[in-house]
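User: Sequence in, structure out. Go.
Assistant: Echoing your sequence, followed by the structure tokens.
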Amino acid sequence: MGIGLAAKAAASRHFSIVVFCVTQILLDVEVLWHLIRRDPPLHRSSHTYLGASVVVVGLTIVGKPVSQWIKAIWNRIAVKCRDADLTINTETTWFASFAGAAFGAYSHILMDSLFHGDIEPLQPWSSVNRLCGVINPHVAEMGCIFLGMVGLAWFLWTERKKRKTTPVEH
């Protein structure tokens, strides 16, 4: 999530954090399925760059309306907060949907490649995962946490600035 929060802060209108999150979850449904069935390897087709590309296409198309729907639900809840304006813009562009899906899928494969020996990210062309063990998992996790904190702080700061300069209409 950390890398997604940083991307949202850096490219706010052009990146859907909702689609990014849905992508992260969808990719790990495959792992959960094989985990429940006790059927290793856990990381298979969706954990390859080719498989992730299929997910990107699907979630780019489905992600835009899903993102708008989730944000509309959020806004219905947020308007009940009287002390703070927590509503958000419900518009998600096609590009933002694509960016969230692509960045979500490919960063997921990259990060999982660092941690899991059963990933073959370049299948069907190669079964080698040269990234596993290249970096200490703790360092990678701390980097993600750091990026998430910086990204969240940056995003909240820019949102606060926007809300101070633009009156909100309900």
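User: And one key feature?
Assistant: The chain has one domain: 2-165.
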